[in-house]
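for the recovery benchmark. tokens below, seq after
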């Protein structure tokens, strides 16, 4: 019983902190769908109003999105324009995506639905729906179906979703290869 209460309170706490962050960014002008979770050390650029994210997306820690290219500073200083310019691009992410830890998403990029972005990727071009992309620059490495089959064969999946953190710890210590 006590375990269940602890689990309920911790889920509520995490859910509400994700929800607070989502609402804060929406107030700043970002469009972010229901159920999208953003870990705290992530950046929605200095122009969050140029970012649109779908439903049920998970941003891992330290994801950086930027909607401007500071390189314009060099052109401005060299006098390429009559007045100082900015170089901008929107970022659009579909539904049900996972953005891996320490990824960078550059201006002008669109990521489709059901996409996994690998840890440490730099996403500089559009990524199609139902794919896994990774690397610098991020390239499609496989489809979502292939990712499922490969990892099923490798035996990397564990049914821990509904366990308390203590149960999960005990189970994983025994089970992970
Ligand atoms: C991208 C990812 C989803 C691929 O998972 P997978 O299908 O099990 O990957 P594999 O280990 O079979 O690798 C497939 C290929 O992609 C490469 N690769 C995997 N992850 C990569 C990454 N993050 N960056 C660059 N290349 C990567 C592998 O080196 C391998 O290359 P090869 O075919 O030339 O040998 C996974 O590696 C990843 O980065 N997950 C995110 C982890 C994360 O952010 N965790 C935080 C938790 S909140």
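predicted aa per position
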């Amino acid at each position: 019983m006590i375990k269940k209460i602890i689990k309920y309170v911790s889920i509520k706490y995490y859910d509400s902190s994700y929800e607070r962050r989502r609402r804060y960014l929406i107030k700043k002008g970002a469009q972010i769908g229901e159920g999208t979770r953003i870990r705290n050390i992530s950046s929605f650029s200095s122009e969050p109003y140029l970012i649109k994210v779908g439903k049920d997306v998970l941003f891992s820690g330290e994801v950086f999105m930027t909607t401007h290219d500071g390189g314009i500073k060099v052109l401005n200083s060299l006098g390429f324009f009559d007045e100082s310019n900015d170089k901008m691009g929107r970022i659009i992410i579909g539904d049900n995506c996972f953005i891996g830890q320490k990824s960078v998403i550059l201006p002008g990029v669109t990521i489709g639905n059901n996409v996994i972005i690998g840890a440490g990727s730099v996403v500089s071009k559009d990524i199609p729906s139902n794919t896994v992309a990774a690397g610098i620059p991020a390239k499609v490495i496989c489809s979502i179906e292939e990712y499922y089959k490969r990892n099923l064969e490798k035996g990397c999946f564990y049914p821990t979703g509904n366990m308390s953190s203590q149960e999960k710890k005990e189970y994983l210590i025994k089970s992970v290869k």
